[in-house]
Specification:
This protein is an alpha+beta fold. It is built from ten helices and 13 strands. The protein starts with a helix and ends with a helix.
């Protein structure tokens, strides 16, 4: 049942088309972890996507530094606008699998120091300019140039060259292996923009055009009639704004002033569900825990650390504090939302007060 719901949501989100959805239903091969919450009214969800209508989305933060330039993005509202207006080379789906976006396909050499990207043909920017390899090279070089303002500049520290092999082929060379590079390219700051652009209103190839933008206030986006794919743009328009106070944001949703909100705390979930709203869970890399330095006291005491591991009732934390919208941690940050990168074979540390007491007594603390 969980697999079916996952693919239903991927279909609603435009990540798979009808043919891909039906094929997935035949295979039933995906289970998505639940973590971060995203909300919408139940009436906004259709069994199959239909075109039309408008949505107002309220994030949690905005200000005078809001931007349409993806590389400068630092907040959820910036990332939301980047996803509406631009595409990246690669896209990560809710099951953490990678799929080509502006890169139709890519390949990597044996030691992960060279990547080749085949750039999708027939894609145009919002100003009508065709997408070419030179646009990709220029966009990605912005992250590694001297004085780059990119917040993910460190992701590309191993890059020695982005090179346009021809109009639709890009070669990436690295100074050392990086098997995670495809995941890094899914970041909202890594969106592809038109070469040498200064018009950030029309810089992207994404599903929505910028119709209005006021930093710290709101933006409105309308459907791109020339979008290169047939999924991901069911709405006629989207208004993106922010309500910084969490209670005011919640009340705006309950009152119908906005249709969708982000940054919802777990304690609000029951109230929302009892009000006829749906809580949609998506995988997230967020984790919480007790962190300590292992090279200094008291973290260098192995028995103290072991005692702290066994004393945590993880199931109760998920049940009581996260209201079921989370998964059990296992003392490392790579949780099950990371898909194949998560070590499923690692035994789950249980809640064991007796073992905790034994180790804590032995630790001397």
């Amino acid at each position: 049942m969980k697999e079916i719901k996952t693919f239903q949501q991927m279909y609603r989100d435009g990540h798979v088309n009808r043919r891909e959805f039906l094929a997935a239903m035949g295979a039933l091969g995906v289970t998505a972890a639940t973590a971060g919450s995203f909300l919408t009214s139940a009436s906004a969800l259709a069994s199959t996507p239909t075109r039309g209508g408008s949505v107002i989305f309220a994030s949690n933060l905005h200000g005078p530094d809001d931007t349409l330039d993806p590389i400068l993005g630092t907040s959820t509202i910036d990332y939301t606008r980047a996803n509406a207006g631009c595409n990246g080379l690669i896209q990560v789906w809710t099951d953490m699998s990678l799929h080509g976006e502006l890169a139709e396909e890519w390949s990597v050499n044996g030691n992960a120091t060279e990547y080749i990207f085949k750039i999708r043909k027939g894609v145009t920017f919002h100003d009508g300019h065709p997408l070419e390899a030179a646009d990709v090279v220029w966009s990605m070089n912005r992250h590694i140039e001297d004085g780059s303002p990119s917040s993910i500049k460190s992701f590309f520290a191993q890059v020695t060259e982005w090179k346009a092999v021809d109009k639709h082929t890009v070669k990436l060379s690295l100074s050392s292996p990086d098997a995670d590079m495809p995941y890094k390219l899914t970041q909202p700051q890594a969106k592809i923009v038109k070469k040498h652009t200064t018009n950030w209103w029309k810089c992207g190839t994404g599903p929505y055009l910028v119709d209005e933008f006021q930093a710290g206030v709101k933006s409105t986006h309308v459907r791109n009639p020339n979008y290169w794919r047939d999924t991901g743009q069911h709405l006629d328009s989207i208004e993106i704004t922010a309500i910084t106070d969490p209670n005011a944001r919640l009340n705006a949703l309950l009152a119908g002033s906005v249709d969708m909100i982000g940054a919802i705390s777990a304690k609000m979930i029951k109230k929302l569900e009892s009000s006829g709203l749906n809580v949609l869970s998506v995988p997230a890399g967020v984790y919480g825990g007790i962190c300590c330095l292992k090279n200094t006291a008291p973290g260098d005491n192995d028995d103290l650390v072991q005692g702290l591991r066994y004393i945590q009732d993880r199931e109760r934390i998920v049940r009581k504090f996260l209201k079921g919208h989370g998964t059990l941690g296992n003392d490392h940050p790579i949780n099950i939302s990371y898909g194949a990168d998560h070590c499923h074979e690692l035994p789950q540390i249980p809640y064991d007060p007796d073992k905790a007491k034994w180790h804590l007594n032995k630790s001397g603390y």
